[in-house]
Design goal:
Layout lengths: L35 E5 L13 E6 L1 H15 L10 H9 L7 E11 L2 E8 L4 E6 L4 E7 L12 E8 L12 E10 L4 E7 L4 E2 L6 E2 H4 L6 H11 L5 E5 L1 H11 L2 E5 L15 E5 L1 H9 L8 H19 L7 H10 L2 E2 L3 H10 L8 E5 L2 E6 L2 E6 L1 H13 L5
Parallel strand pairs: 2-3, 7-12, 9-16
Antiparallel strand pairs: 1-2, 3-4, 4-5, 5-6, 7-8, 8-9, 10-11, 12-15, 13-14, 17-18
Helix pairs in contact: 5-6, 6-7, 8-9
Length: 399
């Protein structure tokens, strides 16, 4: 979902894949930490006897120890306090895990830039997320069988940027051809896909310019800073991909089942698209995401269509098990650049599995076509400012 609004260079024509039965995407195997089969008993903070949980499973020793500490603390708070986020501790106080005498666990891990990540499932039906960013394994998220998940403080909010750079060019230092803000509330299963018209005329510390031009020569962080400083939105970071990266990422996922709301005419470099349910191969997915000529609304409609692709990718990813999340993150990082930490990434990957695509609103900021000198630009209306301000509270458009 995080990359489906990206743009691509002009590819050679490729046939549209046939509609038909849908299978879960095949995810490449990731580098995983060598597991250790063992059982763990927690350390106690005093000589006083405490109730503990014995945990066994084929997991790295440090990860197994972190799980043991958490479950034993849940069973008896006289045990060692786990090093978990404050929000998670509060969540588990209201929705605790089951803590029988013995718990068996299974899990998957991946080594990524910045550390290691894991998804762990217990035989009592609970799901835990873990990350090691160089200072040992920590539990960073949970989906208790008895209640809603906690996958980080809500709303989650990430900027997704598709670079306009061609292969061989600096993907992070050219124009931002597609710009979206993604929000999600894992506990409620809802969120928003909000598109910025790429030609939005904005004021910046470098002068007034099109939003698409702000990244050129400066990098994606200035795009995030603009949104944070202007609209006071809690954007956590960015994910950027280029032309080839988007296509390669989609190739890992396979043909995309999608329901196109409207037909699109043939373009200069590729065939048009019929409306309705169909499957798009990676190249055709890119072509659809790029198309803006000859359609009502131009770039406004293109941005909305990119949101349609994002929702289709979300549904495709949901056909995988949550245990595949570490592998999917590893594949994602092969084709993108991001400022997100391993903790952020595993939390967001798990969030995919608790979202309801029908509860995610796909919108584009309203604006009016105008001129800035000789350039054609989009001037965002006051309603756009209201929409962005509305997102700050809960990541939803309530007005």
């Amino acid at each position: 979902m995080l990359l489906s609004a990206a743009c691509t260079s002009t590819p050679e024509a490729a046939p549209e894949a046939d509609a038909g039965s849908t299978t879960a995407p095949s995810i490449a195997t990731t580098q995983a930490t060598e597991p250790t089969t063992t059982s763990q008993a927690p350390a106690t903070t005093s000589a006083e006897t405490t109730d503990v949980v014995m945990v066994d499973g084929d997991l790295p020793e440090g990860l197994l120890a972190a799980i043991t500490t958490l479950l034993s603390w849940q069973r008896d708070d006289r045990n060692e306090t786990p090093a978990i986020p404050e929000g998670l501790a509060e969540h588990l106080s209201a929705t605790p895990f089951a803590t029988p005498d013995e718990v068996s666990v299974t899990g998957t891990t991946a080594t990524i830039e910045g550390g290691e990540i894991a998804v762990v499932e217990t035989d009592t039906g609970d799901v835990l997320l873990a990350a090691d960013e160089g200072d040992g394994w920590r539990i960073v998220g949970a989906d208790p069988a008895a209640g809603p998940p906690w996958y980080g403080e809500e709303p989650r909010m990430v900027m997704v940027i598709g670079s306009d750079a061609r292969p061989g060019e600096n993907q992070q230092r050219l124009r931002a051809d597609s710009i979206h803000l993604l929000t999600a509330n894992p506990s409620e299963g809802n969120g928003t896909i909000l598109g910025f018209p790429r030609d939005s005329w904005v004021s910046t510390p470098y002068g007034s310019m099109k939003f698409t031009s702000l990244m050129a020569g400066r990098g994606p962080q200035v795009m995030v800073d603009k949104v944070v400083d202007t609209w006071e939105l809690p954007v956590e970071g960015y994910v950027v991909t280029g032309f080839k990266g988007f296509e390669d990422l989609m190739r890992n996922l396979g043909s995309l089942p999608i329901d196109l709301p409207k037909a699109i005419p043939t373009q200069a470099w590729w065939e048009g698209f019929r409306a309705g349910e169909q499957k798009l191969n990676p190249q055709r997915t890119l072509e659809y995401s790029r198309t803006r000529k000859g359609i009502p609304g131009g770039d406004f409609t293109r941005s909305a269509n990119q949101g349609v692709v994002m929702l289709a990718v979300l549904r495709l990813l949901q056909m995988n098990d949550i245990a595949d999340a570490p592998a999917i993150v590893s594949v994602l990082l092969d084709h993108t650049w991001t400022s997100l930490t391993p903790t952020d990434l595993i939390q967001l990957a798990a969030t995919v599995h608790v979202l309801d695509a029908e509860e995610i609103e796909n919108v584009v900021l309203p604006g009016q076509l105008g001129r800035a000198g000789a350039a054609s630009v989009v001037r965002l209306t006051p309603a756009a400012d209201e929409m962005l301000a509305d997102l700050a509270d809960d990541g939803l458009l309530d007005q």
